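Good morning,

Both structures are done.
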Amino acid sequence: MPDKTDYDLIILGAGPAGMTAGVYAARKQMDVLIISEDVGGQAMWSAGIENYLGFIFISGPELVRKFEEHVSTFSIPQQFTKTTRLTRQGETFRVDTADGRAFTARAVVVATGKSPKLLGAPGEKEFTGRGVTYCATCDAPLFSGQNVAVVGGGNSGLDAAVQLMKICLKVYVIERGPELRADAIMIEQVKAADNVEILTGTEVSKITGDAFVSAITVGGVDGGEPRQLEVQGVFVEVGLTPNTDFAKEVLRLNPLGEIPVDCAARTGVPGLYAAGDVTDVPEKQIIIAAGDGAKAALGAYSYLVRRPSVDDWGPRAK
């Protein structure tokens, strides 16, 4: 018997937004499928979470495991693959995946989150997984007692620096702009550490090594003299890109590549909802993503029950 391919609702992504949407869809007894490359999304990167209601402190991986346990009680089918294309024909959506399969549904929730931006420096690709990393929470313990560089002076970069300065011999914080861009309290912590050196107006021009990273070359963005730093780890924290390339045929995106939504998680395309960091909702937080995932699933349920006309969706409709 062939695998089932047609559903009431398909949820793209299994982070806090996608998993919450799955729970709400299952409670409404919707015929739902979750498609995602992984489980947890960016929540997996957090060493400590102190602002998710019900937990005074919990690590990202621990919280994701609790999410998984909750989702598993509903026996929601999941496909672990990448979504490559989302299209719409009439009132049916089609989801194409990297493994050559296609799934259809009458409603879709996009909750695919964001991915780390790359430096684009020579050596970055070659040494990824061999000293170049994009997740301090995941990989910081591997560099205990060593010299490391954090590239990026925003909140994510300084969060990585705070984690690393407690266990590493030396931490370089490299920021292309003229000053650090993180919250003041984080900047104070980093500046107060004896083993942290801050390099502003600086960029990485090359990453070198043998089997693993052994050094990076940095220079001033205005053409200053290059300098070689002996490091064994390079933590890239230069921002995130919304995972929306697959949806460009059916959705309009904002200049940042995010999906504009209204307060009901609607995208402007009837039957198509979005939730979490992939949207233009401000304040990217786990609890906000989870709440928006709930709204998206409830909205999809209401849509499937009532099937409003296209005119009901106003000027956002594509």
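Second structure follows.
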Amino acid sequence: MTIRVLLADDQALIRGGFRVLIDSAPDLEVVGEAATGREAVELARSTRADVVVMDVRMPEMDGLEATRAICADEDLAGVKVLVVTTFEIDEYVVQALRAGASGFVGKGVEPDELLAAIRTVALGDALLSAKATRGLITSFLAQPTGRPAATSTQLALLTEREREVVVLVAYGLSNDDIAERLFVSPLTAKTHINRAMMKLGARDRAQVVVIAYQSGMVSTQSP
């Protein structure tokens, strides 16, 4: 299955470089390029991309506003946004998470890491490293306008094993790490995560992380 990618950046040179890199991967395909946030939203609708690689600073509508528009559109529920930032942890990343972004990479990322990030965001398998997750959530929770936590009714729907995997996802563990920790297969771990996401009404793992911290299931201390 080919992952369809939309590039959103106001610099043609960066878009061109990303296109060459992404199109060189057999499982990835660039289906459109946007120079503004407004174009990104329009092309997300017309191209039906799986992942939007979104710059933050763009004219007309910036990347944060464009991310918010894409993630709030029910017709684009399957579209994931990978935000490209100057720093791994900064105010833009916090705002992007609030807007609904599924992943984050720095502009200095290695080519292979960018391709891997696109794949993981498309699959919903990862958000950030454990260190980055804790740092990001600490900043996110310090701001009063964060996304509301899950309701007690939603949390009550989780099985004991689903609560376990939610906590481990919140600490930045991958499916393989979770499987090893719980002595189950990676596929079983992913099944538990997907069921927990459905019960919590989470769009992706990014929202699972936020819910876990905001509901008090975990703290920003190391497990």
